[in-house]
Amino acid sequence: MKDANAGLSQQTLMKQKLETAQIALAELKEDRNAKLRALSGFIGHLSLACKGQNLELDNKLAKLRASFSDVDRLDDILPELVDIERILKRQYSHVMTKLEQGRNGLVKFSRQLQRVESVPDKLRKEVNYFKQDVGKPFHTVWDYIPKVEQLISFYEQTLALCFDSEEPITYLPKYRQLAHELAQMISEIDFSKAQRDQVLVIKEQLATEIDIDALLESYQTILSMLLENIAKEKSASQEFLFALNEALMSVRDSINESLNQAQRNQQLKNQLNKDINSQVDNVESGLAVADNMEQMKHQVIEQLAVLRASLNRKEALEQREVAMLKKSVETLRNEINELTSETSSYKEKLFEQQKLNLLDSLTQLPNRAALDERMEQEYRHYQRNRNPLWVAVADIDHFKAINDSFGHSTGDKTLQVIAMALKNSLRDTEFVARYGGEEFVLLIPDVSHNDIGHLLNRVREKIKNIPFKFKNQRITVTLSIGAAKIIEGEHILETFERADAALYKAKHENRDRVIID
Ligand SMILES: Nc1nc2c(ncn2[C@@H]2O[C@H](COP(=O)(O)OP(=O)(O)OP(=O)(O)O)[C@@H](O)[C@H]2O)c(=O)[nH]1
């Protein structure tokens, strides 16, 4: 009995413990559900705050919220959270980049506003403060919106002033763009030596804040220089054609003259031959009728004298003929000599012109047309022998800053020095051309993968070590270089594209470096 009682109380105790455990478990569950509800609410608000910024993020957050409602799916949530964290980080850097771009845009716009001449000083000063303020980095989108509003109000004020004033607007960003395009265009034209100084003055002008009248004048001057060059080229060809024509005419005259003279001489000779024959006949018939020796002798002497005179005339005629022939041969020879030298000097001129057409006038490096030709040639060579062929694109870093700080002509000189240094750092079999602006293209055959980095870094270092000094300031100019080796089945233009993409990477990785694709 005692044992039965002890068993009962044991059972009651166990039951009580089980009930307490059940209550604790229910409380725990309730607590967890409350936390999950709070988390789900938080995610709901997070979704609302982020809504529309990134579609992938919107979807992930919606899915996450749904997972919280089903406690059994909690194990699936962990990888989702990692994914969402990744998207959030990416979104953060995207927002920051956009903010930075927006800030740069605001600075640029305010700079352009300051260039409008009719803006009064007070407003200009305000824009200046604004520009300095905007110069500091933004941290949130909310910093950005009031700035845009402020800038719009500056624009409104400026526009109102422009519409009120009778004065024409002397400077607009679009003129600046046109001036920039014109400067770029004239950098690619080969002007004659005599014109280069004038071109330099125009380039300087175009780099400053030019008004519409000055811009139009620059267009006109450049146009008239180009027309002058075309006319010169035309008249050089015309001069040659005139000389050629004259020489041919005088050759024709001299041949005609010789022909006429030869005909006249032939007539004279025929007459003389007739005379001589009849004189010989006379001697014969005189001898036949002569009565005695004395008379015969007399007649022979007389006829012989006549004959000698005719023969002398014939000889003189023949001599004259030879002399004339000599003279006309001489004239012909002179004409031909003159013509030959004219032709070769014209050929030289043509050759020079052809060379000019393939050279960049500023740097004297091969230009883009020459690069196209050489690329084709190297590509054909590569197709025959399959030896390594590299294309490298080199671009001067922050070149605009040199132009902006020290003037366009300093920029031009810098380009010349760098072009020369690039040329000197390559072997004869290697090639460098000015591709345009501050960009150069190098074609390097027969260099292994191991050596190309070394070679290009040597070129880069060489440029970096040039002791440039502008306005007494020591300046280091650096290059970014991208390179690619032609691969099986690829056209050289595709290799160029890869080299260009590598250059783009080098620019984004802080510049002053070589990146090999
Ligand atoms: N002086 C001079 N400047 C030129 C010539 N051709 C192009 N430029 C200038 O080169 C500059 C190129 O500027 P960007 O394309 O902004 O490049 P960057 O300043 O070098 O900057 P990164 O390339 O990004 O390092 C522009 O200001 C052009 O006007 C030229 O023949 N002479």
TrEMBL record:
The entry's keywords: Coiled coil
Molecular-function annotations in GO: diguanylate cyclase activity
EC number: 2.7.7.65
Record-level GO cellular component terms: plasma membrane
Class of enzymatic activity (EC top level): transferase
The protein's required cofactors: Mg(2+)
Top-level taxon of origin: Bacteria
Signal sequence, renumbered to the chain: none
Coiled coil as UniProt keyword: yes
Matches recorded under Pfam families: DGCcoil, GGDEF
Catalytically driven reaction(s): 2 GTP = 3',3'-c-di-GMP + 2 diphosphate
Any coiled-coil regions, as ranges: 11-38, 245-275, 315-349
Keyword Ribosomal protein: no
PROSITE patterns: GGDEF
GGDEF domain residues: 387-517
GO BP, one annotated term: negative regulation of bacterial-type flagellum-dependent cell motility
NCBIfam families in the record: GGDEF
Name of this chain's protein: diguanylate cyclase
Protein source organism: Shewanella mangrovi
